[in-house]
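Annex B. Sample input.
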Amino acid sequence: MNRLTTSWGVSELARFPEDPRDTLRAWDAADEYLLRFLAGDDDTPATDLSGEVVVLGDRWGSLVTALAAHRPTQITDSYLGREGTRANLRRNGTDPDTLRLLSTQAPPPERIDVLLVRVPKSLALLEDQLHRLAPALHPNSVVVGTGMVKEIHTSTLRLFERFIGPTRTSLAEKKARLIFSTPTASPDRNGDPWPLTYTLDTDAGAGAGVTVTNHAGIFCAERLDIGTRFFLKHLPERLPQGSAEPARILDLGCGNGVVGTAAALAHPGAEVLFADESYQAVASAEATYLANVPEGRGKGEFAVGDGTAGISEGSIDLVLNNPPFHSHQATTDATARRMFAGARDVLRPGGELLVVGNRHLGYHVRLRRLFGNCEVIASDPKFVVLRAVRR
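Annex B, continued. Sample output.
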């Protein structure tokens, strides 16, 4: 737990889910810089926050919590970020149900007087969201972005210029920078290119011929990433012995759903559950599945949530997992650890977890501790596919 002090008071903040071993704060210098600017100083007047305030990409709710008295609307692609916001609001005396907490897939607000943008890691997601939100702006709207210097590039500023209007940046403070855009009547708002679709080639293993849909913000959205391509070449041809009828397969951290879709095509009649904490990802997975799996050949379920939360213990025959090892700019295996533990809980006895990852991450050590076993299914100089069995 950490305390963020602003002109609106002191906020006690934590990431979500809370982990006492986690030393990362729920905010950084970019959030602090933006809040200082909004409060004003001797040289700059305070920003008028009496109108409709929208906060895009607030990672753990630090901005929304600090500005809660102004009833801002939050827009996020992250289920964990939204739940973190809800927890931080409650922690600081605000009922989260009194604010609008929207996903990036929800209809955007009709009017925005102040738009605050925490620059996302994905330039595509920024493009998509600015395109969606720009029509709600008016000439007197205030648009301020924030990010660490390493997160703000010329391409970032071009997107603000394209969708909002003339754009400039602040001086850097504590390696953070602000972006100021002035809405204009007729900026370049050509059609949104997202989502993208493409068809996998014959080198994609079990995914060959699958048409993939990617909403903005999905990892490697314009092409199949090499780790997933390697995974697709080594998906199991047979389900674990003793699988129920119909078998249940979980694509955990599904991204665009290509792995789960390939498994559904390889095992007709199977029920495949696609789970991810990204709203954009689950929307992509649903579109990918529906475009490729004929009606009546299987069943697809799609859930935005916290890993395996909400899935009954002992109900899954096969878990397929390509875990992320970044949380925004931080490198961490915390997400992978939670995914592995969740997979163990939802697998039936004899059920299997298949994981692909970079060799240097050493996932086999964690899997042996959790499952008591782990074997290498396939490997190359960069990636490894591991299998662990629930005993």
